[in-house]
Amino acid sequence: MPRPLSRRRRARLVRGAQYGVLVAAVAALTLAADWRRLGSAFFDVSVATALFPDIVTTALVNTVRYTLLGFGFGLALGLVLALMRLSSVPPYRWLAVTYIEFFRGIPALLVFIALGFGVPLAFQVALDQGVTVMLSLGLVGAAYMAETIRAGIRAVPKGQTEAARSLGMSQGRAMVSIVVPQAFRIVLPPLTNELILLTKDSSLVYLLGLSLSQFELANFGRDALNEHKSLTPVLVAGLLYLVITLPLGQLVRRLEARTAKAR
Prior knowledge:
82% of the residues lie in helices and 0% in strands. The protein has 11 helices and no strands.
């Protein structure tokens, strides 16, 4: 009568079977793909070379600029909303909750359309494109950042506030000088995640009908696709997005590790 397998040996066999299925799936996809057509469609070196340096000096720079503008405005507004949400005055809390739920519930696409086309029609004013991008990204990002910051403020021990008040600080001074700085250290990883999301949302600026010098990566890649009749520009634009987001993702992991160690 064969001896029953030990738990460790069964786990090893199951893990080996999973690896085998994964390798077989990758091999099947590799053999089934038409690499020659893929190469001509996505990896045309002459097209990729023609994209430089404009795709970096214009599109990549604009992507970073739009993201930082939106993030800065969203962070400032998110802090105000978080403090309103924590306020003891009910109208402030209601206003903050309404804003947060509204902007978290609608697609960022609609915000770009509303600010890019609705506001000029309603008020007969032409907003600068940079201002429109900053407001669109910031309004959406603020709704998420407000909840993140609120959670960070609540995570600061109440004893910190009580100690500040015992030293004669007002409630507002204790919040600004003691609580908020500690809260930001706690929420740095999720805020960096929000920066990554805003980087990708910046591709929605194509709705605003920008000029060539205002193109960001996605718009630049789409325009070059039409010009060269090749998908290579889209692939290059995607790789440049990774140049931005991968270091930020690594930063998030380091911040999370540092925060966990500090606890």
